[in-house]
Design a protein that fits this description.
It is a single chain. By secondary structure, the chain is of the alpha/beta class. The protein is elongated and about 80 Å long. Helix 9 links the parallel strand 10 (about 265-270) and strand 11. It has two domains: about 5-155, Leucine Aminopeptidase, subunit E, domain 1 (3-Layer(aba) Sandwich); about 180-495, Zn peptidases (Aminopeptidase, 3-Layer(aba) Sandwich), CATH 3.40.630.10. The longest helix has 29 residues, at about 160-190. It is built from 15 helices and 20 strands. The chain binds ligand BES, manganese (II) ion (MN) and zinc ion (ZN). Ligand BES binds near residues 270, 348, 349 and 377.
Amino acid sequence: MPSLELRRKDWRAIEADAVALFVTQEQLPQWGRELAEHVPSVQAALESGDITGKHKSVTLLYTAHAIRAPRVFIAGLGSESSLTLEAVRRAAAAVAKRAAALKLRHLAFPIPSAAPGGLSPEDFLYAALEGSVLSQYRFSKYITREQDTGLVERFTVCTPTPAEQRRFHPVVEYTRTVCEGVFWTRDIANAPPNEIYPETLAEAARQLGTQAGFSVRVLNKAQIERLGMGGLLGVNRGSARPPVFLILEYWGTRRSQPPVVLVGKGVTFDTGGISLKPAANMSEMKADLHGAASVIGTLAVVARLKLPINLVGLVPATENMPSGSAMVPGDILRFLNGKTAEIDNTDAEGRLILADALAYAERYNPQAVIDLATLTGACVVALGHVVSGLFGNHRELLERLKRAGERTYERVWELPLYDEYAELLKSDVADLKNSGGRTAGAITAAIFLKHFIGNYPWAHLDIAGTAIAPQETDYMPKGGTGVGVRLLTELLRTWEPLPTESSS
Ligand code: BES
Ligand code: MN
Ligand code: ZN
């Protein structure tokens, strides 16, 4: 990840490859006149009409020694009325990407004295840094040839005043920590399945735990057998590699306070098993552990921020492979909570491993349980790659997730869990079957999970569409997006005990 620092310097004195200045359409005339006093070349650029303030427009000007940095980027924010945190992220990503394309290494940002559009200067800075840092991600460790665009290596926020220095220091620290979590999560999601499989995922989590300050317990296959996690074991049967069950713990407040538990689907590669997937795009299923990666990444962020909450991460991890020993349709599995399910389709494997983890979560008497999973293609059909599917049994928890989704732009959209859908999962020979057929696939998957939750507030996020981006967008790379880390950190940043509700 690029480095992110705060320096006590005026933007005119900062040594950097370029200084980025943001402006709205409304601010432009007045702002331009003032800026021209420091950077005379702005005058001619304004007169040419090339600087418009249009959202995501970026104008490069050379400063000819008028200030210390040789270049200034004028970044358009659009009109004040449409200036949101997300607009700032995207405008900042546009500048950072332009700098990267020019192979510039070091970009400086002055702190906005009065942030436009009703945003606080803190929020403006947070969004600008998040957008620019997150845009500088590339999964390139396996590419040996020379790259034709660079990456910005260093972002410096500058202010000459000690008061502003103190005021904005926490914003810079917070944003750096969150972005580190997102980068880690993207790396795990993008890693090839011959690098990241259950045991190496466990090792990566261990290392991160040591660095960030959370504990990692790795249950091996024998321990998983002793517990009776028949879902995780069933899915693992076709694989040459053993499963793991990861238990991550961060105790940020009194031990007597029950934790929030995050559960992440950790299918390190999903071939579909005996119900084999088609060959086209199967490699995308290396990211079928994105939920797990998001959970582990979020634990790192929360631990590094030392948030005053207790947080547990549970990650069932396995490959889903076809082989002579693989589970087959018709098999019946028995889960940790004693319930049984008939296998209708071995490709509906995520819910099988989550069932054991959701049942395990009950041992913590949790305040809330939130699971994240690249669970269904049906969710991608319903919501595309724009928004995650949201389900759950506790109104306030769901509303909090929606609010966190709006702020971070990791948006969520609630889908129903009406009783009628439960019919679709009826089995003649077991408590349930693992697939409800073609209709309402995202919902029937969530209903399957609901059979395994304990007596706790629960939310399920189907991130199948949002975790794997088909195309690069402003600050999201193609492939693993890191979705979930920013959403959950935002939720937990201001966590308060949930009110009791009659559960549905
Ligand atoms: N991992 C897939 C879901 C998925 C599909 C994630 C596309 C991301 C992109 C999941 O294990 C799966 O295969 N689900 C099946 C369920 C069906 C067999 C009931 C699906 O969605 O087709
Ligand atoms: Mn599958
Ligand atoms: Zn899957």
